[in-house]
Amino acid sequence: MSTVNLTKNQTLVLDVLTRSEGPLSAYTILDKLRDHGFRAPLQVYRALEKLLEFGLVHRLESLNSFVACAHREHACCSHGTVAFAICESCGQVSEFHDHVIDDQLNSWTRGKGFKPSKTTIEIRGLCAACNI
Amino acid sequence: MSTVNLTKNQTLVLDVLTRSEGPLSAYTILDKLRDHGFRAPLQVYRALEKLLEFGLVHRLESLNSFVACAHREHACCSHGTVAFAICESCGQVSEFHDHVIDDQLNSWTRGKGFKPSKTTIEIRGLCAACNI
DNA sequence: TGCGTCACGTAATGTTATTACATGAATTGT
DNA sequence: ACAATTCATGTAATAACATTACGTGACGCA
Ligand SMILES: [Zn+2]
Ligand SMILES: [Zn+2]
Ligand SMILES: [Zn+2]
Ligand SMILES: [Zn+2]
């Protein structure tokens, strides 16, 4: 659980994401940080790039947006693939891990000689609260 | 295995995707169809929307691009979630299904009361040929 | 004929992401 | 102390991806 030294911009971006209820697009983050001196998309994208490297943030491909990791205490990157359930009504995102799925994907890739670098699993739908 | 009647534009787009080695972005499709009278992105996006509905085409979220379904004879939509392995070197895409993964995801969503509408599974990495 | 639906066309605009270039601070090796 | 290198940052411009708004003609059906 090595703690990383974040730069000022990285800290600002991570704080915004951590405080947010749901995922945010890069441009939404930019808007939220204009008061703190952010003026260009690149400032956000550069910070996000590092935060993704550190495993502190995840990118939701199906939403073109970003969330703070929900399992920071566990060093997310270390325990396999992460999956997300995304509610299309309220925007809530649940992050989870599943070793059976991991194993199954690994078994497929090994069988094919495919060397995975990054795996995306995203379930869009309605959360329990919205599915009344 | 009901065959759908495609419109002219839908046929053109599907043909381009079917002939293509790998996934194509909407704008690449547009360029390839300029000779056939395509002039605006919307023509492509409208055709893609229908082809996605029909299950003849898949969208790769992590690539913002589209592929023809590799299992048309099996009526792709009918047998659960589709997964893709995408080679970051040669661009080749392998489409596959795995019932264990399906079951595992379904068991998670049932447990949470989450009602899935669409699931994305994409593995980025290096295919066997590129991973020498 | 009048009406609704649907595929299509065109233009404009909105959203997301990257490239190119410049500056200043911190780090390293001598 | 000095040059060389690296890294975070700033700014502007542009590229890539996607949607909204509006209008037309074809078709099926009361
Ligand atoms: Zn995480
Ligand atoms: Zn919800
Ligand atoms: Zn398919
Ligand atoms: Zn390859």
Automatic annotation (TrEMBL), chains A, B:
InterPro entries hit by this protein: FUR, Fur_C, WH-like_DNA-bd_sf, WH_DNA-bd_sf
Taxonomy, superkingdom: Bacteria
Cross-referenced Gene3D superfamilies: 3.30.1490.190, Winged helix-like DNA-binding domain superfamily/Winged helix DNA-binding domain (1.10.10.10)
UniProt keyword annotations, A-Z: Cytoplasm, DNA-binding, Iron, Metal-binding, Repressor, Transcription, Transcription regulation, Zinc
Pfam name, any one: FUR
Localization per record: Cytoplasm
The UniProt record lists the keyword Oxidoreductase: no
PANTHER family (alphabetical): ZINC UPTAKE REGULATION PROTEIN
Family: Belongs to the Fur family.
Subunit structure: Homodimer.
Protein name: Ferric uptake regulation protein
Organism encoding this protein: Rhizobium lemnae
Gene from which the chain derives: fur
